[in-house]
Design a protein that fits this description.
The chain has about 450 residues and is mainly alpha-helical. It is built from 18 helices and no strands. Helix 1 crosses helix 9. The radius of gyration is 21 Å and the shape is globular.
Length: about 450
C-alpha cells in the first residue's frame, strides 16, 4: 500500500491523525474517563480515612496530626502497619496475569498489568498514606489508569507497543487527575515512563490526561495544589541556581540509590506482615515530636514554600523525612514516591536558601525551595521537562522563576546522568529487571506512525 511522507520531521506520514485508527482514539477517551473517575473515588477514600483516623473534618492534614495525642499517633500507625502487612500478604495471593508495578509492566511485561491486584494495591496504598505512611498518594490513581488501559488494549487486540503506550498514558492520566496537572501528567507518561517525546506519542498522552483531569474535577478542586505568593526574579536567584544545580543532582543520586537499596531489603514470607508493623509503629513514635513526617509531605512542602518552617526544623526534616519514606517502602508497603521526592528537594532548597540569603539577601525564601524541589525531582525522575511543568502546574505562580529553575534542573539532571543513577522508578526494580529495562529502551513503534498499514 502506498505510504505518504512529510517534509516536516516531527509529523510523519500524512499527519498524526492518520497514525491511529478511530478505535485507538476511542480507547484514549475511555481510559481518560476511567482514570478521572478512579482518581476522584480514591480522593474520596483518602479524605474519609484521614478524617476517621485523625478525628477531624476540616483544616489541613498536618494540623490534625499536630493536634492528635501521642497515644493516637501510636495507635493509628500501628493499625496502618497491620493493614499494610496483612493487606500486602493477601494481595500477593490474588490471582491474575500481568505485573504488579507499572514500571515492571511497561519495561518487562509488554504493558500487561494485573487488573484486580492493581486495584487492591491502589486501595491499600491510599488507606495507609491517609493513616500516615510516608509515601506518595499518586501511586494508586496511576495503577487504576494503567490497569484499565491494559484491559481495554487487550480487548481491542492492540499491538504490544500501542498497549505499552496506553498503559503509560493511563498512569500519567491518573497522576494528572489527582493533582490537577494535565500537562505534567502527560509529560510524565512519555518522558519518564516511555523515554520519548515524539509527537505521535505525546498527543495521546495529552488528550488522555486532559480528559482525566476534567472528569476528576467533580471531586478534585480546579486550583493549584500549593497556594503560594508570586515570586520575583532576582539576580541572586540565577547565581544560586547555578550553584545549587550540581548539589541537587548529588542529592538525587543519593536518594535514588537509597531507594534501590531498600527495595532489595523488602521482607519475604512472615516478614511481610511483621516489618510494616515495626516500622510504622516506630514512625508513629517519632511523629509525636515531628508530625511533619506523616503522610506524603504535601503540607510540609506548602509550609516550606511559604516560609513557615524554622531553619532548625528544616534541617531535621531533611534527614528524617527521606528515612521515613525509605523505611515505609523497605517494609514492603505500596505507595508512590513523587511527593516524598518533591519534599526532599524543597527541604534541601529551603535549607541552602537560608544560608544564601545571609550572603546575598533579597529573594523570598520560598523561591529557593521551589528551585530546589524542581531540581531534585527532575534528577530523581530523569525527567527534566516533566519536573519543570509539574512544578509550574502545582503552584501556578512559579513562572517568574523559570530561568533559575531550568538552570538548576539541567545541571542536576546532567550530574545524575554522568554518575549513572537510574530514575526512582527503575530503582524499584531488582538488578536483573533494571538491566532488562535498559536493554528494552524507549517505546519503538512496529510500523511508521504515518503509514496506512498501521494497526488499531
Amino acid at each position: 500500500m502506498r505510504r505518504h511522507f512529510s517534509h516536516q520531521p516531527n509529523v510523519p506520514g500524512r499527519g498524526i491523525i492518520a497514525g491511529y485508527r478511530p478505535r485507538f482514539w476511542a480507547l484514549v477517551a475511555l481510559i481518560g474517563v476511567a482514570a478521572g473517575v478512579g482518581a476522584a473515588v480514591l480522593t474520596l477514600l483518602l479524605n474519609a480515612v484521614q478524617y476517621a483516623a485523625w478525628n477531624y473534618r476540616s483544616g489541613s492534614y498536618l494540623h490534625a496530626v499536630m493536634s492528635a495525642t501521642a497515644a493516637r499517633h501510636l495507635v493509628v500507625l500501628l493499625a496502618a502497619g497491620v493493614i499494610a502487612g496483612v493487606g500486602g500478604l493477601l494481595i500477593g495471593r490474588v490471582r491474575g496475569s500481568g505485573a504488579g508495578e507499572i514500571s515492571e509492566a511497561l519495561w518487562l511485561g509488554g504493558g500487561r498489568l494485573s487488573f484486580w491486584r492493581s486495584q487492591a494495591r491502589g486501595a491499600l496504598s491510599i488507606v495507609i498514606v491517609a493513616m500516615g505512611a510516608s509515601l506518595g498518594r499518586e501511586g494508586a490513581p496511576q495503577l487504576t489508569g494503567a490497569a484499565v488501559a491494559t484491559v481495554l488494549s487487550e480487548w481491542a487486540k492492540l499491538p504490544t507497543w500501542q498497549r505499552r503506550l496506553l498503559v503509560a498514558c493511563g498512569a500519567g492520566a491518573g497522576m494528572a487527575a489527582v493533582y490537577n496537572v494535565p500537562l505534567g501528567g502527560a509529560l510524565f507518561a512519555v518522558e519518564v515512563l516511555l523515554g520519548t517525546l515524539s509527537l505521535p506519542i505525546v498527543l495521546p498522552a495529552v488528550a488522555m490526561s486532559a480528559i482525566a483531569t476534567v472528569v476528576a474535577w467533580v471531586v478534585v478542586p480546579d486550583r493549584p495544589t500549593y497556594v503560594v505568593p508570586v515570586f520575583e526574579l532576582k539576580a541572586s536567584l540565577v547565581v544560586w541556581a547555578l550553584i545549587i544545580g550540581p548539589l541537587a543532582g548529588l542529592v538525587a543520586v543519593g536518594w535514588v540509590r537509597a531507594i534501590a537499596v531498600v527495595n532489595t531489603l523488602k521482607p519475604r514470607q512472615r516478614g511481610r506482615v511483621l516489618a510494616p508493623i515495626i516500622i510504622f509503629t516506630a514512625l508513629g513514635a517519632v511523629s509525636i515530636a515531628y508530625p511533619q513526617l506523616l503522610g506524603n509531605g504535601k503540607d510540609t512542602v506548602a509550609q516550606a514554600i511559604t516560609n513557615q518552617l524554622a531553619f532548625g526544623l528544616v534541617a531535621v526534616l531533611l534527614v528524617l523525612k527521606p528515612l521515613a519514606t525509605a523505611g515505609c517502602l523497605g517494609s514492603g508497603a505500596p505507595g508512590g514516591l513523587f511527593t516524598p521526592t518533591l519534599t526532599l528537594g524543597v527541604l534541601f532548597g529551603d535549607l541552602l536558601g537560608h544560608g544564601w540569603a545571609a550572603i546575598w539577601p533579597g529573594p523570598a525564601l520560598g523561591s529557593y525551595a521551589i528551585i530546589g524541589g524542581a531540581a531534585v525531582l527532575a534528577a530523581s525522575m530523569q525527567g527534566p521537562l516533566s519536573a519543570v511543568v509539574l512544578m509550574l502546574e502545582l503552584t501556578h505562580t512559579a513562572d517568574a522563576l523559570i530561568v533559575p529553575i531550568l538552570l538548576a534542573v539541567a545541571e542536576a539532571t546532567i550530574v545524575a546522568r554522568v554518575l549513572g543513577a537510574p530514575s526512582i522508578y527503575s530503582a524499584r526494580l531488582n538488578d536483573d529487571a533494571s538491566e532488562a529495562a535498559v536493554a528494552l529502551g524507549p517505546l519503538e513503534p512496529e510500523a511508521p506512525l504515518g503509514s496506512q498499514e498501521q494497526p488499531a
